[in-house]
Amino acid sequence: MYNDPMDNRPASLSVLRLAVASLLVACSQGATTTSGFNPTASSASSTGPTTATNTSTPTTAGNSTDGGSTAGGSSAGSAGASGSTGTKFDSDPGTTGCTAVDLLFVVDNSDSMGTYQQALSSAFPGFAQAMFDALPPGLSVHLGITTTDFDTACTEQEGTSNCQSTASADTIVMHYIKPTDFNDGGNGSQGRLFEFSGQRFFETTTDDDPAPMVTWFSGAATSAGENGCSFEMPIAAAGWAVHPANTDGPTAPNKDFLRDEGALLVVFFLTDEPDKSPESKNVYRDMLLDAKAGCGGEACIFVAGLIPPCVIDVNQKLWQFMTLFDPDPAWSSITDTGNYTDLVGTALADAVAQACASVPVG
Asked: Considering only the top CATH level, what class is 11-46+93-357?
């Protein structure tokens, strides 16, 4: 019911295309990786669509600053613990090569997500170090988090069957409060960046020690919590995070996070549920493309995530959205928490660096 019309390609074809794309990433320009996103294995391990119930009972969240809470997850001092060195990717001088990277993590904050938030937080230091190693020196990096919540007053329990919501379309729309409708007051909801320790996003460069960024991310990712609405809308969150409603104006919550010309936008999804965003996937894709129009649109966007394999099996809306961008997305199963350090590590860092090297100049 909530999938958009597609070209009727089977999901297995998308997985095959991604497997080929992953091989190209590994082989391109002499790059080598020993671990990373393995779409073929993740899909094969899936037992197909299952019936699940999200039993969250969210409460209304405030929009106050988290006054410098101690960061959770891995310690900042372990940023280089993985021993990853990354692989430098050469751009075409004067033609390609990003001047900045904006990392947007869309974190599901509904019930059942605590374990996954913690696992991502623990794996993040290795990714950060490998990414800094693989990207050009002196490159500006912005890191922000938004959540999948669009209704902080949501208390209704929502379930899924065959990787689709069992709620009616009208019920889903009731829990979709756009930032252009009104501000629901939630920290990180409606595509707003999640504020942690007084910061909406973290700014650094690849010449800096990644440890402070790791500390901030670890605290923010785990503080997103599990009180968000059970009607998760990750692709809507990605779109609204870069929409003028959240970016334009002197008091805009996401002001200055996103760069356009010369900057690579990386969108990373962390969710254990199928998407319930009610509008067409193309609406949210257009939000991203419009935000990156000066840079070159799709050439400046890279999509990845730890997601439920069932969305691939049934070509669910989240997967439909992720495959709207070229190259095909890097992904693996969110349930494979024991391998997050490998999944979110050098392979993903190298993929980001390669995408950066391909960003058009001028």
From this structure: alpha beta
24, two tokens: 């190209």
330, containing H or E segment: strand 330-333
Phi, psi of 117 (to 5 degrees): -60, -40
In this prediction, what percent of the chain has a pLDDT beyond 90?
A: 70
Taking only the tens place, the pLDDT of each residue in 341-355 is 988 999 999 999 999
Please report, for the chain, the start and end positions of each structural domain, with discontinuous segments joined by +.
Answer: 11-46+93-357
Cβ atoms 143, 201 nearer than 8 A: yes
pLDDT band at 37 (very low <50, low <70, confident <90, very high): low
Site of tokens 């990714």: 127
The pLDDT tens digits of the residues spanning 53-74 come to 443 333 333 333 333 333 322 2
Q: From CA 319, how far away is CA 322, in angstroms rounded? A: 5
Q: Do 111 and 225 meet the contact criterion of CB atoms below 8 Å apart?
A: no
* Cis bond upstream, residue 327 (ω within 30): yes
